[in-house]
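Exercise 3.2. Students should predict the tertiary structure of the chain below and write it as structure tokens, then compare their answer with the key that follows.

Predict this chain's 3D structure.
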Amino acid sequence: MAQISSKLALTYFTELSAGSAVPLDLDDILNMVDLRRHNHVVIGDIALRCYKNKSKWTYDERDIRCAAQAFADFRLDADDVVEVQLPAFRERDERDPEDWGRADWRQKIASWMFRQARDKHQEGRPYEEWDDSWKRIGASGLPGELTWDEFVAARSGIRWRENIANTRPLELITVSGGSLFLPRAYAELLDRWEQVEEDLVARARICKSCTAQGPRWGGWRTQSPLGYVTLCPPCSGAAFQQYTGHLRGVLYDSPRVRGTRADDYLCRLCAETRAAAWDHCHDHGFLRGPLCGSCNTLEGKSSPRSFLERQEGAVLHLLECRDCLERRTLPGRYHLGIAQKHLEATERHRHRSRRCRHQTWVRHVELAHGAHHFELKCWQHGETWTKDITVPETVALVRSFVDHALAASQPDVVGPSARAASDTTSPA
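Answer key:
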């Protein structure tokens, strides 16, 4: 098997499939966005297996050439079309969680249209005039008052908004008499794409040790030297060690850390997946623990508030840093999010001589003269006002946030050093 890099694979595929009747969008060959889901990149109805060797992901050159040739040979009859029946709008909580993220090209196109129809309906109108008319298919065949030209203009130039199965369906859709049409051969290609994706996901949900079926979104998927594998929590627990905090207080760049493999342990946060890296505090340099690739990415690249609110045990994990714990603080990038959270919980404007009960939306504008300047808005009434929080006040809010998290935790969760810190007053 001749293995080639993703860059070379993209070059070969682009050259060999030039002139294809199907408009292709091949960035996934380079980015490999669905590796964790099933170790494949799917172009149309062709699944390209990705191989991991020495921490690098590659393709089989024969697979790339064969798939590219298939698209070069693909034929479309512009006169042989089928009508695209768009599914009705459904709120997310009305759908079975098993359907979230399911390969469904009609639903995907419909979701693009409903979102654009909602934006058109709400733009320039006061909140009181918003209604659900944008959820109904209109005479144009599109939701609400949206027209095809408006829809295409709004979607153009944003490639990820137009991509299904690494192809661009909007370039092949035609509109006539309030109906949408696609070439039959292309619609059948997308139908096959749905089945290929579902088959890959179904196989990737099965624990390789006990054959139990895992969650649809790859919660049991863990990295290995040869790619992602599926292990249920009990099997992961049997295969990998629980991290017990034995490296707490050790600097990230110390020989002790360099000589200990993170992938010998379970992820400290989700406790279900094999760890991929040692996480550490970038402010103070102390180790926090082993994290899987997903949790490590969530901590490092998601918004601070998202990490604190969505990830169970997030605050206690951050306090594994010895300096953060002793100072009863969190890394600097979390301070602003905590201040915003505090304002949204406490700030309300006066409406008709009464304190408004609706949620406040807070936007940080700038830091100037030692204070964070926030812009606050009540969407219900359209009221906007400002609030300043000084840096010392922000530090105090963070300390209070940490104290509350420590008090709410079980005594043994973060060890004796946490209990000692919660009973002392250290300089911030």
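Discussion points: The CA atoms of residues 29 and 156 lie 21 Å apart. The mean pLDDT is 87.
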